[in-house]
Amino acid sequence: MKSSTGLEESAGSLRVYLQKRPSELQTQRAMDFSGREWTPAGLPDAGSPGESLEVKTTSIGRRGNSRASSTRGRMPLLLMLFLLFFCHISCVWGKRQGRTSSANFRETEKRILDHIIGPGNYDKRIRPAGANDTGPAFVRINLMIRNVQTISDVKMEYSIQITFREQWQDGRLKFDDMGGRIQYLTMTDTDMIWMPDLFFKNEKEGHFHKIVLPNVYVRIFPDGGVLYSIRISLALSCPMDLKLFPLDRQQCQLLMASYGWTTEDLVFLWKSVDPVQVTKNLHLPRFTLEQFITDYCNSKTNTGEYSCLLVALIFKREFSYYLIQYYIPCCMLVIVSWVSFWLDQNAVPARVSLGVTTLLTMSTQTSSINQSLPPVSYTKAIDVWTGVCLTFVFGALLEFALVNYASRSDKHREKLKEKMKEQLKQRELMEAAMMEQMEDGHGHSTYAMFCCIFQKPLVSRHNGGSLSSSGGEKGRPCEIHLQPKRKNCCRTWLSKFPTRSKRIDVISRITFPLVFAFFNLAYWSTYLFTEEEEGGPPKK
Fold this sequence. Notes:
8-stranded mixed β-sheet
């Protein structure tokens, strides 16, 4: 009915066209075969559309061939009108076909789907056949990492959002592509065809995305190829080795395996081109994704061997955060504890409060660091740093205790020296008084008694006041030759500080910074060199 209506419209338009042309056709002139002119006449006017088109010729001359000349003259006009009519019909038919083509394709796709996955033609409980209808079915997998939300050191897990894709061949789903006009069929219901029983081995929890609609589709290609794509968010376990924390690299894995089909029935393979894709604007707060490695991890159990795929994500920890939050504050606390070395040894409240405050602050800093990390049985790099810093702060507090003890000891020695000086003065006065008595002739017995009381008599007077030794021999002059002591720069410098407490403070001012600088040199050279070694080929 639609085509007949188009023909009627075309005929009507042609009729109108001819009605507008009679005046032009009446004035047209032509030449017959004899060379004489002829004028077409008798065309129907616009008021008589029902009359048939006739072209009557009138003879100008008296030749008998006028009818043949008029017939040959109107042939080009009829051919032109036929061509115009055919072009108009073609345009109308093409427009109507374009309007109905999309609807026809949708209906064709529906008929194809009903045919290939109909109840009598397809059974989703049976897996697809392998190559040449023998062997296992091969499923090629690729994924795209859209986002890595968190990497938890305490829980030893990481959260990731991926687009997961699977491709396989199912000969039962082949269909006619209608000369290439149907590239593939798209479905959003995955329960209508057979699906691989893949699961994530190290998954803790996960969910699909259903806003606004479920983010999943299945495409069926004319050759029987199937593409399955879905967006998933997963929380996966990631066992970490924190011996080099925070100068470490962590390898987090994503394990995918078949749950029920063994390798005799189902084999997973990585896609040959771009098996893993990473979004360009991927940003992690405390880590950097350095590289990823794809591998196979088939597992054998009591029930058989199962196909497994592995992708290892290598994350490098950003050190700048920990340098600002951990290392610099600890270093500053150690330096502040050295201020007590420059305070007076008698400023006991100031030095005690400074030492205790820095010690408590360092302990709090160590506790906060340990709370952000899991309790492990080995020593971490940050534990070495905080332990040594805490030791230096505690050493500064012990140094003040030693200085305080040395100060009290120095005071006690000063008192003893004063007592000795007083005794020496008293003895010198008594010796002087006894000498005066001897010179006055009071006798030798008093001097001998004094010598017995205060010291052993080494020299005595005999025979008119001459001095002799206790053995009765005459005294001889005695010479003692001593070698000069070598000068020691350290002792010479320390001799400037008379008290031991002051010497301890001065030695601590130099010793503590030097030892801490040596520790920093050994610490950074050791762990940075170890980090470079750990940055080699990742373990599988």
